[in-house]
Design a protein that fits this description.
Blueprint (H helix, E strand, L loop, with lengths): L1 H10 L1 H21 L12 E7 L5 H16 L5 E9 L2 E8 L5 H15 L10 E2 L3 E13 L5 H17 L4 E7 L4 E7 L1 H7 L3 H10 L4 E8 L2 E7 L6 H5 L2 E5 L2 E4 H4 E7 L16 E7 L4 H16 L7 E7 H31 L2 H24 L6 H37 L1
Antiparallel strand pairs: 1-3, 1-4, 2-3, 5-13, 5-14, 6-13, 7-12, 8-9, 10-11
Helix pairs in contact: 2-12, 3-4, 5-10, 10-11, 11-12, 11-13, 12-13
């Protein structure tokens, strides 16, 4: 078989060159379309269900949220394992699928089960799916570098402007905010005043909710013109809350100002984010979707951040905390450098030892084509270019070089001997 293949190649050298050219072009196309990442994704094929129930103990979360969810999610096709974790105010359920299951098909199956599991949840508790990213999906971290701004202002800027803009980048699954605190209006009730006015705490809660709302109206036609009438009731400042009536005493309205105080503060925090020991910082984490090209996604995120920077307040800039593209570019640069060094070294060795330039060209052609075929196979088996696969290619270059030198030297020697025998 090998003898026939060699004979065919010798008789049809132009066909071999055409095939080699096609493989090289195909390989170059595969290099451009192969996902590039720094580390291989060996995480399990999983879907995460997150449920929040503020203020509840881990045991209550386990009994009323995690256990009903785990029980209801049993029986989904291609599920390998289901794991549940309960903590203070939060529940996590990890549904592990078989490796051959498509992740978006799996998320659809889980959503179908969650629609029926909703009726098992306590009032006001809604399970939600986690982002469609892997365990190595955190590709870029940034912070908002600003002086003279408090953490609440920076967190509001991150949550209501930066986050929404970066989530529109193709390939981004989620932008997770961290640091700072979320602003909120806090009503501090004096229990003695509630007793004095004979008002219960549920009355205060109900009045606050009902007074923070726009009401619908209708269209009125007058003098050939149409007017839309509606009631504006959304709270815009602290004084609006203070003037909300919660009861009546002797025909005099009792407002929230009479039973307590209103202040602006931050939501309850379970931790802080400190940057290099220089103080707290506010920023976000870019989470990449499944099977995306990390290098292209990071480049698109950086371009988007340039646009977003134009709308930031004066003195606020982006500061990169973690950028995986640096590691990716260094890995690719290492492969390119190794390939160039090997090609030059081998060509010089073959030329000086054999003094035959055509033999050196054969090796120079063989190495790029071999690497091109490697990337074709990487795409065929859906394997990304990462440190592991690129390291394997670098090691394989050494084997290719050894084989090339041995084969070319052996062929050159046999052809030289055959030529000498014919002359004799």
């Amino acid at each position: 078989m090998v003898e026939k293949l060699i004979s065919f190649s010798l008789r049809n050298k132009y066909v071999v060159l055409i095939i080699a050219g096609i493989l090289f072009v195909w390989g170059v196309y595969s290099v451009g379309n192969n996902p590039i990442d720094a580390i291989p994704d060996v995480s399990e094929n999983q879907v995460i269900v997150f449920t929040e129930w503020a203020g509840r103990s881990p045991q209550v979360i386990e009994d009323q949220v995690t256990f009903p969810l785990v029980s209801n999610l049993q029986g989904i096709p291609m599920v390998k394992n289901i794991r549940g974790t309960s903590m203070f105010g939060m529940s996590f359920v990890y549904i592990i699928f078989e490796d051959e299951a498509d992740v978006y098909w799996a998320r659809t199956r889980v959503l179908e089960r969650l629609s029926s599991a909703q009726q098992l949840m306590p009032t006001g508790v809604t399970p939600t799916l986690g982002p469609d990213g892997t365990g190595v999906g955190h590709i870029y971290w940034y912070t908002l570098n600003a002086k003279g701004y408090d953490l609440g202002e920076l967190r509001a800027l991150q949550d209501w402007y930066v986050k929404f803009a970066l989530q529109s980048v193709p390939g981004v699954s989620e932008v997770a905010s961290f640091g700072g605190f979320q602003k909120q209006y806090q009503i501090v009730i004096d229990p003695h005043k509630l007793t004095y006015y004979n008002i219960s705490l549920p009355q205060v809660l109900k009045a606050t909710k009902e007074n923070n709302n726009d009401v619908s109206g209708r269209k009125i036609e007058m003098s050939g013109m149409s007017y839309i009438v509606r009631g504006l009731g959304y709270i815009q400042k602290k004084e609006d809350i203070e003037r909300i009536a919660v009861g009546v005493s002797n025909s005099i309205p009792i407002t929230i100002r009479d039973v307590g105080t209103v202040q602006q503060g931050g939501d309850l925090r379970l931790g802080i984010f400190d940057e290099n020991g220089e103080g707290e910082a506010v920023g976000g984490i870019i989470v990449m979707r499944y099977n995306e090209n990390a290098d292209k996604v990071i480049a698109a995120v950086k371009e988007k951040m340039k646009e977003v920077s134009k709308g930031l307040p004066a003195g606020v800039t982006f500061k990169t905390s973690y950028d995986r593209s640096t590691l990716i570019e260094e890995a690719v640069k290492s492969v390119k450098g190794t390939l160039l060094e090997v090609m030059i070294a081998v060509s010089l060795v073959v030329f000086f030892f054999l003094l035959h330039w055509r033999s050196a060209i054969i090796i120079l052609i063989q190495m790029p084509i071999s690497i091109a075929v490697a990337f074709i196979l990487l795409n065929a088996f859906n394997i990304s270019s990462n440190i592991m696969s690129l390291t394997g290619i670098i090691l394989a270059i050494g084997v290719i070089v050894d084989d090339s030198i041995v084969m070319v030297e052996n062929s050159y020697r046999r052809l030289a001997n055959a030529s000498s025998e014919r002359k004799e």
